[in-house]
Write a structure and sequence with these properties.
The protein is mainly α and 151 residues long. Helix content is 64%, strand content 0%. It contains 8 helices and no strands. The termini are far apart.
Length: 151
């Protein structure tokens, strides 16, 4: 996958692949990554979603509003290609990690990457649920600063 992912970011992307396969999708999309982040409530971005009281039903509804229902019932067994939006969101995640002086991409950087990738399912969903990239970045930096001060 990506060589500079933290273990927790790798875990989220593996979960996203699993979700995409369960949905019988032939691709890995930003919506699958968003679901995986939501499921990892112990991660910083998962906690941000939980703090906003975003339920599975609310997330499912918003994602379905932005995702075409083109499932044909086929079974997908091989490695799934990422959509162009997924690829760009990951490039933004790498930029966010570098911007914050991190060596590895963490789940919070992936969330910021999803928010920066305008027009993707995850960005549209998060926007409709009240998230924007600057607000999320401030909360992430604040949380990181609190963690550093405790060390």
């Amino acid at each position: 996958m990506y060589q500079h992912l933290s273990a927790s970011a790798e875990e989220i992307l593996q979960e996203a692949y699993h979700i995409a396969r369960q949905d019988n999708r032939e691709y890995l999309g930003t919506e699958h990554v968003l679901w995986a982040i939501w499921k990892h409530k112990n991660s910083l971005p998962g906690g941000l979603l939980e703090d906003r009281s975003i339920t599975a039903e609310a997330l499912r509804l918003e994602i379905s509003r932005h995702t075409p229902d083109d499932q044909d019932g086929s079974l997908v067994l091989s490695r799934l290609p990422g959509t162009p939006h997924f690829t760009q969101a990951m490039a933004f995640a790498i930029e966010e990690a570098e911007r914050m002086g991190e060596v590895k991409v963490n789940p919070e950087h992936i969330l910021l990457g999803l928010l920066r990738e305008t027009g993707c399912v995850a960005q549209k969903t998060l926007h409709h649920l009240g998230f924007d990239v600057e607000q999320a970045r401030r909360k992430i930096i604040s949380s990181q600063n609190r963690k550093k001060n405790k060390s």
